[in-house]
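Repro case for the chain-ordering regression, as requested:
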Amino acid sequence: QDEGGLVEYFRTQMGKDPDMASAVAAIRTLLEFLKRDQGETLFGLRESLTSATDCLTGVDSSVAVSSAGELFLRFISLTSLEHQDLSQCKKVMEERGELFLQKISMSRAKVAKLCHTFIKDGAKILTHSYSRVVLRVLEKAAAEKKRFSVYVTESQPDAAGEQMAAALRKLDVPVTVVLDAAVGAVVEKVDLVIVGAEGVVESGGIINKIGTYQMAVCSKAHNKLFYVVAESFKFVRLYPLNQQDVPDKFKYKADTLRSSQSLSEEHPVIDYTPPSLITLLFTDLGVLTPSAVSDELIKLYL
Amino acid sequence: MPGADKNTDLSERIEAFLADLKRGGTGAGPLRGSAETARETTALLRRITAQARWSSAGDLMEIIRKEGRRMTAAQPSETTVGNMVRRVLKIIREEYARSRGSSEETDQQESLHKLLTSGGLSEENFRQHFPTLKANVIEAINELLTELEGTTYNIAMQALEHIHSNEVIMTIGRSRTVEDFLKDAARKRKFHVIVAECAPFCQGHKMATSLSQAEIETTVIPDAAIFAVMSRVNKVIIGTQTVLANGGLRAVNGTHTLALAAKHHSTPLIVCAPMFKLSPQVPYFPFSPSHSYEQRSVTHSLWWVRREILSKVNVYCPVFDYVPPELITLFISNIGGNAPSYIYRLMSELYHPEDHEL
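-- result from build under test --
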């Protein structure tokens, strides 16, 4: 019913703090929705939350928003198991929701604290596109007086790599922007590759901006370390076996999905990197090997 | 006063242990196996629990952590010391939780589930006093000691499942665990062992002597021949100094070469490592020279080089190698066989995440 208001709230949240992850903004919006909800039954609440999540994915089709929605729904189910009375339940949900938001806003700091020790002095790092988590990690390493240089891919079609380069220049880190096509040629020069993730799938693989898979294959061919940094709320219950298995609703931007005639003529904006190409994942739950990711998901959803 | 005597006695023992650790590292003192180090560390920790003055679990954990830091600083490459300290810390946490009667002892790990359902920023500060805690902790440490004593036997017991008749097994250097493993299989099966000598200290020679005394057909080869001989080998069985958190190894110098040769020939690589060698460390810079911690002096083995040349030569002799988890087929430990990708799970059962950093 209040779809317009919801979308407005989401957009304002994203606009207020451009540094905030879209998943966090989504959870904040859903929490607000919960506070305003007038429903009388739990079932009705779940239904309206599902439609609210669908509405949000219509604005921002990234995997992170969808996984945030599922996480929130799970949060509701777990909390409702403890309290029978809906109004009391809602109060508990609101309190816990605020607490949850507090915790996940500290996730990036935790990840940075874990990962920056893996960057040694004099390291040459390759990264892909613009990732706020990777930026945070590099900020922390620079603050610890480590000297390192960064190669970042241009990352078309939106040239997000330029944004990353600008942010790194502000930190006085020597940075070179390379063409997406130059990844294979550049990989032999670097010591390690660090990328962010939009979603971490059950197998321990990741879904990230198009071009990540290429980078992973090249770094495997050259035996380079491939590190992924991601917060734990990006873990999503998908198990793609190849690129085709990734649902179309994530592959293309929301506007493209709505307006295009035939998707086969559109360019996908994300790709899937299988776990065999990833060395380690740095999350706020600790340093994980790809095989440990499914354990975490099972602990939550079962 | 009896209290002061106990205290000085305790600190004397700790100092003696620290001195022993330091000496063991420089090669000057008696080279002890890691099993002995683990046992002695645990016995010392039990003594600290029994004799030191503490009133709550938090105090005890602080004392143990402090002593643990000193012990690991004395000999950083001997990781079993740190591992035992972490095991004891986990024991204390579990006993404390049990005394409190809370059922959340299993849920102490950070997880998505815990993030969603916790009602408040719970800061467990372990301040409550329980009179039975001391006895419970000491009993649990005794159980740990019994487990430690049985590790080599438990590993050797699994030998018959992995070694078949007329097989050619390759190993490197000298590992007491692998020695017992092979000797146990030799009771019922006939097989051939090839030992890479592992220069420059050539521990492989001692291994070969010991194995041949147990009536096992043994051949010693120089390290350079590993790749050449690998095509005739059925299995590679090695020991290790440490098992790292990502499933990789810190093992004696030359093991990485052996692992790469085995991978090339698709020969299974089996690592016999007891659980106390499992360390929560993740290798920071796995293939860089600084990772091998220490180097040993080898001037005594270069006696054949003329003196005027020797002073101009830089000798580089790292003690340990890093072996990445992709090269390893199976870990055999006292609790059974596991794949390297499962190591993270075993680790979460042995240690609490907050104890990873002492």
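Ordering looks correct now. Chain A has a mean pLDDT of 89.
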